[in-house]
């Protein structure tokens, strides 16, 4: 709500003055200072809900521009901006001070009041040692208990710190992927725009090659033309998929999805490429009217794409000639389970519990031909999507003829209700 409705707006004579308070407007420089950590407290624009009320009678020096976009930035406006910013900053810093939090990056002599549990236990043990220095078996037993407690607490702290470090690394990578998504969106748009021109030039080139008098040269040119045609088709397949994915991502509205419709659309999108890779799809959705709990279509697509890219890498490593992928969907109680099977290498039993950990991968540097080399985040994202919609992701037991089975579950539309 803060990102959508937060910010300090301005009303003059009862009417809203744009653009103050819009998500993209930083008229109080709150985003600027928090982004550069001049302020360490939560004091961004979306942390506040409020407005400034002006009137032509009480504030005659504060006038709108002739275009009605903003106020004239005169001395009165600068005074208004300075006072509003001071008031908000004062309030936020006062809250931080009450909570014993550091308020500014340059704050000197700040000492956090937060104490590690192990420090508390060590202090109790030290006091106990000094006051019960020779108290017999009971005192010794209590000291041993305290030392054991201190060891357990320190181990727990180390585990928590390791998880926090891994979480920070994961979030940093997600931010990188999010920024890459913007570039990929532009790429998909540009590919779509260049498709017609490139196809037309390929047809023209084919006609020109047909007029080459040297048969041997013509044969070589036709071979290169065919390679170029295949590469272009592959590029258009990926570009089309990205374009369709981004168009569905534009809407933030959640809606229940037809599982069969999503799987059919996904397999059609990669049908040509899979045929070139000699991969046969087998789709088994029962009943066909299965619908998920409300979710983003792009999230289900990302799950299928992650399973597909991993399957391709596995089948390439296994060097199987008869490459097969089976996608199955069933209702299990309140959940829908989508299973993705392939006849590649499979996953060793000792690694099955780790494949959904962030940055864990057995295919670093391998290119699947669709999404490129992996980052070790694909299956972690699959797991996160499943958990956010009441489900799980796990390695299942493959059916006969297949070596690997990945299962993804979410609440069904009926289960969510």
Question: What is this structure, in a nutshell?
Answer:
The protein has 417 residues and is α/β, with parallel strands linked by helices.
Give, in spatial order, the strands making up the sheet with the most strands. 4-5-6-8-7
**N-to-C span:** 24 Å
Please compute the radius of gyration using only Cα atoms.
31 Å
The CATH architecture classification of the domain at 251-416 is 2-Layer Sandwich
Low-confidence stretches: none
Strand content: 5-15%
Question: Helix segment count?
Answer: 11
CATH class group of the domain at 251-416: Alpha Beta
What's the overall average pLDDT, rounded?
82
Name the helicity range: 40-55%
Fourth-level CATH superfamily of the domain at 251-416: Histidine kinase-like ATPase, C-terminal domain
Class inferred from helices and paired strands: alpha/beta
Record field, number of beta strands: 8
Shape: extended
| Major pleated sheet | 5 strands, mixed
Give the SSE order as H and E letters.
Answer: HEEHEHHHHHHEHEEHEEH
CATH topology of the domain at 251-416: Heat Shock Protein 90
Protein name: histidine kinase
Domain Histidine kinase: 186-412
Keywords: ATP-binding, Kinase, Nucleotide-binding, Transferase, Two-component regulatory system
Catalytic activity: ATP + protein L-histidine = ADP + protein N-phospho-L-histidine
